[in-house]
Amino acid sequence: MGATERRSGVSYENMAYNILVVCTGNICRSPIAEVLLRDYAQRRQRDIQVKSASVLGLVDKPAHRHAQAVAKEAGLDLSRHRSQPVTPELAEWADYVLGMEIQHSSKLRARYPDLEDKLLLLGSFGGMVEIQDPLGSWRRRFRITRDELQRCTQAFLDQLPRKG
Amino acid sequence: MIVLLLACASPGTQSSTTPGLGQPTLLAGQASLSVDYWRKRATLRVQTFQVQESVLPEDRQGVAMGDCAKIQAKATGEGMVFEAKQVSAMCPGHTLTIEDQHSGATSWRLDPMPQAGLVCTIAIEGVSEKLPPLPNSPAIAQQGRTLSWEPVGADEVRLVSLASQNESGVCRLPDLGSAKLPRSMTRGDILVTWHSARLAEIQKRPMSLSATAGTWLVETP
User: What global pTM score does this model have?
Assistant: First the structure.
């Protein structure tokens, strides 16, 4: 469906929520959250678009091998993921921006003041504040992170009102 | 395969250290500025010890310069007897927020993220000392097992990686601009840090002052 397509006088523009998940490098947490959200939305028959990006500005890096492994354990594929920075276009595109740490929100808020109303801490949907970076840790830590992300993304989606 | 991720201006550390010193040193205290450019965290820690016999868990653990070794993971403060002292700290142009404070151990978070050259000053019982300037964290290129970078004049470069559940692998290298990764570090993420350190005497007791900056080399599939 085209972005500006209209049917019967009803705008179908952006009928799906656009969700941008952000972490430090876009190689560990946010790629996992992205595929978890997409998978859960599909199972709940929710129409959302999900992308992920980094505040650090890494470009075209694959997901961390442990991230790929723990995603695979959950039946999800990260093998084709490539990192990308948050851009003005992505910031504009998103209805909601889910950050992992307070510093992500601060950085994005400073860079894109208009994002203020879109910024959310993903951890807050799972009874946490921040979801810590597992970089440098064992796969077991990545597994814990994946489970935290799963809990939080599911709670976020469950609370997301239906559009239209 | 390990690929350099953050070349440009990325430093970072995960623990305060006392680089540049020789063998495990008996210290009465330690002040360390640690900057992790990957995690975007900068921390200044000041610890004062009750007895000089304390061997610091955060010291080099006896790893000789130019050598690599496995060290046991220890909880912060393990093996140390702190002594409460009146401490304060100042880093020009930065806001210091206390993150953790116990008797004899205080940590501040710095905001904004410090850049190379920052000189913090600490004061213990009214006696102040400057920390070494924060070293630069240069771009690192990797070819096979060889790392190369532009030397920044740091006292040493350190590589840290997980070795097992309770151990970390640590290498101490001169800041010469190139180094070969040990075989034990060809898998997994590696924290690469540049350190500057010196010893000072505060109230006639030796104190380690250090500044550390670095970032992560992230293993990619």
Answer: 0.80
